[in-house]
Design goal:
Elements: H1 3-12, E1 33-42, E2 48-54, E3 65-66, E4 69-71, H2 79-91, E5 99-103, E6 107-108, E7 113-122, E8 135-142, H3 143-147, E9 153-159, E10 162-171, E11 174-177, H4 178-191
Parallel strand pairs: 1-7
Antiparallel strand pairs: 1-4, 2-3, 2-8, 5-7, 6-7, 9-10, 10-11
Protein name: Nudix hydrolase domain-containing protein
Pfam families: NUDIX
Cofactor: Mn(2+); Mg(2+)
């Protein structure tokens, strides 16, 4: 069974008990803001995942690597609609070009978002155009590499007086970390033992 078939099946299964729930909140007690990201998997013999590089001048998560996505707007019908809208706004990905598989497990970010990863498949080599104000660049990284636990490193660092653990994945000199890496770790946990 292919990796993409395994991933599609894993989305329909009950979540494993060891999923990462999320970060310690900067401001506990505040309600979480609903958000969604699109995990766009390319239809290749060796599928990849589309990731964006945020612009350096942004107020939050400047320069970080992320899935296309953002907060859910009141006009969004559901999490999938929000993820598709955001991917269209950020990288020009037409919503009709995504074959949706389903939603994965919400992840709580340190900044107070509850982010739902929405997974879907897209054709390879689409002409994607970064939205100039928000996205500096985009790239495709191999799905198998990102989901292999051997490439997911737990790191400890002090943040605002507390020791925190986060994950990072380094691919071709690009550092994928924080919530994006944690959501990939959770997808790996859904797949079960890596073979």
């Amino acid at each position: 069974m292919s990796l993409t078939d395994r991933l599609r099946r894993a989305l329909a299964a009950p979540p494993p008990p060891d999923l990462l729930p999320g970060d310690i909140l900067e401001e506990p007690g505040h309600p979480l803001t609903p958000a969604a990201v699109l995990v766009a998997v390319t239809r290749r013999a060796e599928p990849g995942v589309i990731l964006t590089v945020r612009r350096e001048h942004l107020r939050t998560h400047a320069g970080q690597i992320a899935f296309p996505g953002g907060r859910i707007d009141p006009t969004d019908r559901d999490v999938a609609a929000a993820a598709l809208r955001e991917a269209h706004e950020e990288i020009g990905l037409p919503p009709a070009s995504v074959s949706l598989w389903g939603a994965a497990d919400p992840y709580r970010t340190v900044t107070g978002y509850s982010v739902v990863p929405v997974l879907g498949e897209i054709a390879p080599d689409l002409s994607l155009i970064p939205q100039e104000a928000e996205v500096a660049d985009w790239f495709e990284a191999p799905l198998a590499f990102l989901l292999d636990p051997a490439n997911q490193r737990a790191v400890e660092a002090e943040f605002k007086g507390r020791m925190r653990t986060y994950y990072e994945i380094t691919w071709e000199g690009r550092r994928i970390w924080g919530a994006t890496a944690a959501m990939l770790v959770n997808l790996s946990k859904r797949l079960g033992p890596w073979t």
